[in-house]
Batch of 3 targets.
Target 1
Amino acid sequence: MANVEPAAAYARERGLHALVVAGPDRILYEEYAAGYSAERPHALYSGTKSFWGSAAIEAVRQGLFRLDDPVAEVLTEFRTDERAAITPRMLLQLTAGYGFGGLGSAVPTYERALAMPLRSTPGTRFTYGGVPLQVFGAYFARKSIASGTTPHEFLRVNVLQPAGASVASWRTLSDGTHPLPTGAQLDASSWLAYARWMLRNGDRYADALTGSGANPRYGLGWWLASASMPRDLYYASGSGGQALYVIPSLELLVVHFGNSSSFKHEAFLKRLLA
């Protein structure tokens, strides 16, 4: 099912920190470098986005909101302009109309994100960036006030804890909140545990693994398969080559940590699945 050595060689040439290839209940291959181990936390960067589709679906199951509700019901400052059409689904699919930006050290606070203008009509264009996740965070935070929780605590209790995964640390913004599009550090064991949770609960999280009309290859925080990949593959992707691949039809899971701008998902997967 997996041709590990060519894939591992590709990763080694591109700043490998950790590579774990696993099935549903056992590790098939693991390799660590640059001082990393299964228990040493690593930054996920934008791989962090993959948590929020799962968290949103759990919130829907608990009746907190619906994916196609207008967020203006809670974000009242959106009611008088075109932002009134924005839904949680659009924010998580990155089709809400915000421009590129809000990544890395430029992630805005909730307050700043809510003040940012749209660049396109909601629902019509996919634009990668961090601002929509921060707007979703502001919406989720207001929805959570009554239950005395926060988006990150909701995620921990309803997704990560049941999955057997834990966040080692999470960056803090100037307003004291943690960003949603980036900032989490997990060790390889915890990210693998999250992948196994997704594999076991694929039907539960089907909405998170469905693309939009604007971009059929992006779900709710997850990238979806291109034509050259297994059709049911989905993956989290972060700067520097961070990747979490889930391939249900092969019952195959892969964690990759690294430090290279030249790491390419399709090149790695082509070798792994040859």
Target 2
Amino acid sequence: MGEVRKKSGNNAGSRQPDGKSIRSGRQADGKSIRSGREGAGAHGKKRPVRGEDAVDEPRRGRRRRGRGSKGKGILSNLILVAAIAVFCVSAYQLFKIGKGYYDGRSEYDKIRELAIETKEEDDGGNQPRYQVNFDELTALNSDTIGWIRFDPEPAIINYPVVQGRDNQEYLHKTFSANDNSLGTIFLNVENNPNFRDQNSILYGHRMKDGSMFRHLQDYEDRAFWEANPYFYIYTPDGQELIYHIYSMGEVLDTSDTYLTVFNTEEDYQNFLNMTKEVSLYDTGIEVTTSDTIVTLSTCTSASDEHRFVVRGVRVREGDQ
């Protein structure tokens, strides 16, 4: 009976030669062995190794992608910061330019209010007489030598005229000695301030807001010249000098247009002939060696070497 019970209790096992019993899938020490899992011990020591290989590699990949995304984010932020900085600098520059224009225009508006008067003609006419208070102007700036205006257009050209110690002094300095890109209308340093030279030259900037000598280029249009053929210069000794525009056009800054001294009458006549030949159109106005002219000069958008000039011949008494 005992043998039978042993056999029935050992149905799934077998007996080794030494008499020890082994169950299928279990070692003699009671530890289990899974079939088909070679090298996998009872405690599964191999499985964590494979599990680590299977899990850790993807994790490292995710970390690498995370660092790449973080780098792209930093680069995007740097680009954004740089763009904001460029915008701020550009905005400041535009503000500075706009403020310069505003300050310059405001200053010259105040000067006009201070120095300009209009009165009725003594002969009973209805045309106002334009007068300049040079006492007020010279009190502000002792370099004052005149006033220039156009009538009726371009009426915006209505400014005091100075003469500095050189042709650089008033390029970026207003009449009231403020630093400003508008500068001041100034007479060539080599000219006589009484405008009696054969060719007196006045310089002014071509400002984008239309101020100073910007509207000289309106004379590119013949119809504009026909409607506005004169400009006027007033002097501290009470003179009103009237100039009939006879020539206009673009020149180089090295042009003979800027000659102010002529050794002979013939040289001067050749110069006058040249100023008519290079004009954009023929005005039909005669100019002789007994005349004096004023050349108004400003820069252009063509290049730093190009200038636009308008030339006027002084009108004799009763010729207007």
Target 3
Amino acid sequence: MTETGWTAAVGKSAFDRIGLHRLTSGFNPGAPLILFLPGTNMNGELPLTDPDHWLPLYLAVHGCEVWALDYRTHFVPPDTPQPGLAELRGWTDARFVSDIDAAVNFILTAAAGRAQRRLYIAGFSRGAAFAYLYAAEHPQKLAGLIILDGFILRRGSLGGPKISPPAAWATDIGGKSLTYDKRKALLELVIRDPKAPAPIARYRTAAENLDQVVYESKAFGGRGGLANPAGHFSDALTLARVLITYDRYWPAVQDDEDPMTPELSRKLAASKLPVIAFASTNISPRWPSWVAGAAAQTGGPHTVIILAGWGHLDILCGTRAAARVYAPVRAWLTRHAAEERGRAAGFSAAPSAGAPRPGPTSQSTGR
């Protein structure tokens, strides 16, 4: 397995950079091309070496060529004070979508001459919202969408505290009680020794302390919304290794936008892109319907798999993600990539006029 990285300047400030990471297990001209868009405060770096806990790595091990994006936020030093973050006031959803397009163009140029002439976008959480926005603007470059517990965002739809400029140009991943430094110290302790004494006395170990932090996260509704270690859907050490790679700041302006305009909604509906989407249930009773509703808006065939009892991160890196998320994604990609190769070779995969068109499917699964 090889990981290769690139960075590119996309503006004048020191923060205006984006990055790409390519994971591949060898040259395969017929392999599906996938761009992974991480969620809020996340980046494209590889946090884990176990393919059963990280979708990009799993797909690369199984023959796909996977690229992952570093947003501009990855290049903002964590010790930057709020007055030094004024540059982020212009980091709108549209700006990030333009960065995604630059990344897609780079990937397609690097893949010139291959059978695949379009790529798949996989988006987790806010990355799913970016995937839909990008699909609306550039459907001709895409073969399909892989949606991991996300949907088309509306103003305030993610909940949680909002800090508006100019009081702060960016939201901080640290909170009032679990500050950025305390968060970092807890994650480092879990990685170093999950059985070490917990920083908070009422918990026995560092791992138990982290389990309770993610389970009770108010921004994700509590009761396992962020992750559900109580249901054995997540593992503290895996979560720590993923969470410690998060970037500190995110542009506050994006939390006050409604980026999917009526015009873009019409374009998305005309794209007819196929979608496979996965939804957790613990954040909100309405969350699965939001995920399913967004998947239907491309106007193409869509499969929605609802995972009962799962938290948000359980879908991305949980203990059962390989069997219940990664394997279905791989099977879906194999089928659609074969159709894409057929189109590239000049064969039409479209049904005849009298043939039934594939319709949406929904599947709800429990523990």
